[in-house]
Specification:
Structural class: alpha+beta
Number of domains: 2
Radius of gyration: 26 Å
Oligomer: single chain
Strand content: 5-15%
Distance between the termini: 56 Å
Number of helices: 11
């Protein structure tokens, strides 16, 4: 059983690494192709290497070699299908584990601050990987054993990964998990430029909160007031913000008072605006971000804002 799991597990991870590598490769190649065509090209190259040579960059990274010279192309293709099933099993285990973490954070706000601690996050990621591998092994064994028996694939066709092979095969996946976990939530689900606008929104929120701490909870009524105070105070806290769509910096190119902006307009793409209603005695603020079309950013079909109005 261990040999079966070893073979399929390492091959599954090697396949994951290959998909990641070829996905990045075709996305950045200067080819006159749309995204679906690029993906198809990358998968085609991967399958060609796998079926014809038996080795791919992912398998070499894991130290996993195959000896498929005496197998037909059909049998090689079936073996690749088995490895894909193994990868699907691992993916299902990851989805279940990640779902548990998300539900925990959703119903327990204190869990969010706990996950942000580096030590706890590292332990959680390690446990997450271990449980995912064990779960995928169990699912893989149940689904794959009879397929391998049906193919009559001998174990000596495959040289198993040794020494650092498992660790190396984990590196790309571990890197993705770490990157996703260490990035602010608003960067995980958006493109880089939208994420930059959202980061600018958070920078503006920080300046507003600093202003309010100096003025007994009162926020500035306008951008001009905020900028003057932030620059002239004994400890300046003004931050120059860069518009990700125009690469211009400075408040005239990046920030605005919400009441002075129209509802839409390409001129205001990448801008960040805010309003502090007088009706709330200047103690509430709302911050908006604008996308590449100059329209307010939405997230999950809802307007994306930063505000203390619900505090």
């Amino acid at each position: 059983m261990f040999e079966r799991l070893n073979s399929a597990t390492f091959r599954g991870f090697a396949l994951f690494n290959d998909l990641l590598l070829f996905g990045l490769l075709v996305m950045f190649l200067p080819l006159p192709l749309e995204t679906p065509s690029r993906m198809g090209l990358g998968l085609g190259l991967l399958l060609l290497l796998e079926v014809s040579w038996g080795k791919t960059p992912g398998s070499l990274l894991a130290g996993y070699g195959t000896e498929l010279d005496d197998l037909s192309w059909f049998e090689r293709g079936l073996w690749l299908g088995i490895c894909c099933l193994k990868l699907v099993c691992f993916g299902l285990s990851c989805v279940v584990g990640w779902g548990v973490l998300q539900v925990t954070a959703l119903f327990n706000k204190e869990a969010i601050s706990v996950w942000n601690q580096p030590v706890i996050l590292g332990l959680a990621l390690a446990l997450f990987l271990i449980l995912s591998v064990l779960g995928s092994n169990l699912l893989g064994y149940l689904l794959i054993e009879h397929l391998e028996d049906g193919l009559s694939i001998e174990r000596d066709h495959f040289a198993y990964a040794k020494d650092w092979g498992l660790f190396l095969s984990f590196l790309p996946l571990l890197g993705i998990l770490l990157y996703s976990s260490l990035q602010p939530p608003y960067l995980n689900h958006h493109g880089d430029k939208i994420g930059s606008v959202m980061a600018n929104m958070h920078n503006l929120a920080t300046m507003l909160e600093t202003y309010a701490s100096d003025w007994q909870g009162v926020y500035p009524e306008s951008l001009k007031t905020l900028e003057q105070e932030a620059k002239q105070t004994e400890n300046p806290y003004w931050k120059e913000i860069v518009n990700p769509y125009t690469s211009l910096s400075g408040s005239p190119n990046t920030l605005a008072n919400e009441k002075e902006l129209p509802q839409a307009g390409i001129k205001y793409r990448g801008f960040v605006s805010f309003e502090v209603p007088a009706a709330d005695l200047y103690r509430k603020y709302t911050i908006y971000g604008y996308d590449k079309h100059g329209k307010k950013i939405t997230y999950k079909d809802k307007l994306y804002i930063l505000s203390n109005a619900w505090d």
